[in-house]
Write a structure and sequence with these properties.
The protein is an alpha/beta fold and about 290 residues long. About 35% of the residues lie in helices and about 15% in strands. It has one domain: 3-Layer(aba) Sandwich (Rossmann fold).
């Protein structure tokens, strides 16, 4: 397993933004943009999910958050309510299709939802040749199947209620692949092409489906990688720095707001140019490729 290390040992002194920083990040969007709307964000206890939930709340939305870590979700709820957002918390694993269906039933009892941001997922860094069957299945089941359960349940509710809806899936648009994360690349690629397919199928129900693909975005998760590898992440793109979770949140807002009303079936890549130039090795570049 990769060595974990603390913010004090991090390349730039910390990992990700604090709650206070997220609460005060400047935004180009007006503060009542989502007034009267309800937004569901999965995996909202930390990282990109938390930043996204915070920004939608700051812009007037009421928020529904779900994830496996109830303690983190409750901490996020405290901040969301400070922003004035009515907040629902659902502790569950998106791998549990029955739990996901029950959550959407409950959400519809309390007013439904307008936007679903599928951010929840999980993976571990490992050479693909060493994957255990259990580890492979766990990542595929969470990142692909779990995302599908969320998408389908939302779409069924919107179709039956004759309500429009937005789905935004957080994916990995690594068309060159990503060493040390073959399992999540496989799952996220599945989500990408699933999204493109249902964006067409579900257009008749007024449901938009898009993807946002982050590059090396600094979150608490950086602590899962070896220090010598994490130190190189900021050099994996031509801009020579890592992104922020708030960058991804603003992209999600763009898609869900009127600014994205004519966008569906798309992937917006937010990676500082990484897909065009640069290498990202989660465990550090092997000697074989050092020339």
């Amino acid at each position: 397993m990769a060595k974990r290390y603390s913010k004090a040992d991090a390349p730039e002194g910390k990992f990700g933004a604090t709650d206070e920083e997220l609460a005060n990040k400047p935004t180009v969007f007006r503060n009542d943009l989502f007034k009267g709307k309800r937004v569901l964000v999965s995996g909202a206890g930390s990282g990109i999910g938390k930043a996204t939930a915070y920004l939608f709340a700051r812009l007037g939305a009421d928020i529904i958050i779900c994830g496996r870590n109830e303690e983190r979700l409750e901490t996020a709820r405290t901040w969301l309510e400070k922003f004035g957002a009515k907040t629902e918390v659902h502790a569950l694993s998106i791998r549990d299709d029955e739990a996901v269906a029950a959550m959407f039933d409950r959400i519809w009892e309390t007013g439904g939802v307008d936007v679903v941001v599928n951010n929840a997922g999980g993976q571990f860094s490992q050479k693909s040749i060493d994957f255990a069957v259990k580890g492979w299945k766990a990542v595929i089941d969470t990142n692909l199947n779990g995302t599908w359960y969320m998408m389908q349940n939302a779409a069924l509710k919107w179709r039956d209620a004759k309500r429009p809806g937005h789905i935004i899936n957080i994916v990995a648009d690594f068309w060159r692949g990503m060493p040390d994360a073959a399992h999540t690349c496989a799952a996220r690629a599945g989500v990408t092409y699933l999204s493109k397919t249902v964006a067409v199928e579900w257009a008749e129900y007024d449901i938009q489906v898009n993807c946002v693909a982050p590059g090396a975005v600094e979150t608490e998760g950086f602590g899962n990688y070896p220090p010598e590898a994490a130190e190189t992440f900021k050099h994996a793109n031509p801009m020579m720095h890592t992104g922020e979770s708030h960058d991804i949140a603003e992209c999600c807002v763009y898609l869900a707001a009127p600014s994205g009303k004519f966008v569906t079936g798309e992937i917006i890549t937010v990676d500082g140019g990484q897909q065009l130039w640069g290498d990202l090795w989660l465990y550090g570049k092997p000697d074989y490729f050092k020339v």
